[in-house]
Description:
17% strand; 1 helix; three-stranded antiparallel β-sheet; alpha+beta
Amino acid sequence: xxxxxxxxxxxxxxxxxxxxxxxxxxxxxxxxxxxxxxxxx
Length: 41
């Protein structure tokens, strides 16, 4: 999961892509830290 830092939308990131964009506002300013934490466990 990733969270857009611009509009706050939480959405699924397929393939763990770092350069994906928010589906709502198309911002690339996203936080994928939640996703990384899930992969470490």
